[in-house]
Amino acid sequence: MKNSVLLIYFKEIRETLRDRRTVFTMIISPLIVMPAFFGLIGGFISHQAAGYSHAVEPVAVIGASANDPIVQSLSHDRHLILIPMDPRTAQGEMRSHHLRAALILPLNTATLLKNGTPIKARLIFDPASGPSRAAADRIRSDLQKMERRIVRQRLLAKSLNPDLITPLKIETNVMKGSASLGNMFLGGLLPYIIVLSAFFAGVAAAFDQVAGEKERGTLETILVAPTDRRSIVLGKFLAVFTVSLVAGISSIAGLVVALTSGISAFRFFAAGGVSMSPKAAAVTFLVVVPICVLFAAVLITVSTFARNQKEAQMYLLPLSTAVTVPAVLSLVMSSEVSQPISLIPVLGSSLIIKQAMMGIYDPVFISLAIGSSTVYAGCALWLATAMFRRESVLLKA
After folding, report:
1. Using one digit for the tens of pLDDT, what is the confidence trace for 174-188?
2. Fold of 57-164
3. CATH 3.40.1710.10 occupies which residues in the chain?
4. pTM for the structure as a whole
């Protein structure tokens, strides 16, 4: 039986490597295309952020004159162009995006400041516009600095210590050994990329190995050979598992190498530095194996049930949804979750990878996730073997 399994396995691997589509999804896409895609996104975001920080934004000033102390203070900000304007005109200019924000001040601002009366200022901006938010943040920051300066001057004028209004000064420090922002990002994104790469690489291989052979009429040649059906299923399963595993490892290598390369396009995602400890790498690999086992078993089962590749593709939408939804959930979920979550296929394994990148290792959670994935894969493989013994399923192309 062992020789038969290996014979089928090497036959399927040879045929898989001849298929450019499978080779692309297995190696080129996760190793090169996917990191390049995130590099483009990171480069665009960094360029846009740099543009916001250096941009000069037009802002309407309503009510106060150019000689007003607040207006004069804001005029020192080289990133703002202050334009006196009436409310109706300012509203129209903001809607047409010619203005980024509008500051409404009382007409007697100077008098109110002199008398020590609180001034009510209104800042209007568009939260859906990045430049508008940037201009509003600048105005808010400038006004807060002016406020602190005025308060200090008033306290000194009354011979009072300015520190009286700040009885508590909080100093924040990052805990030693905590994960960087780059590792947080990698921990959220890596499971998602691994799942997508491993699953879709397995799809290309599995759908061709059974449904494709039914369609081409070559499956009967294998069935009449002196090999039991279980050996055929195991050989094909191992071939799909290999393809998925290579794709998963390629996605890890591609993303980790890209984020640790220091290339400017990836600096946005690698904020604070990115590192993958040997322990995190070992746990990640340990979890990727049962994920690929599960994908290979399920895909072989679906491919066996389908009459041809067209029907197999029809089942791809619900399958891919069932796979990607848990992977997306792992992006937004906290790394600290209850242990029953580990029993959810894909989600539990994805969270283990996320935890590993954050330096969290829960042996019970890891054992439950790996064990449950193995059980699910075993059930799918048993079903595929059972279907392979039914001529009505194998010969219904």
Report:
1. 666 556 666 777 777
2. abc type-2 transporter like fold (3.40.1710)
3. 57-164
4. 0.73
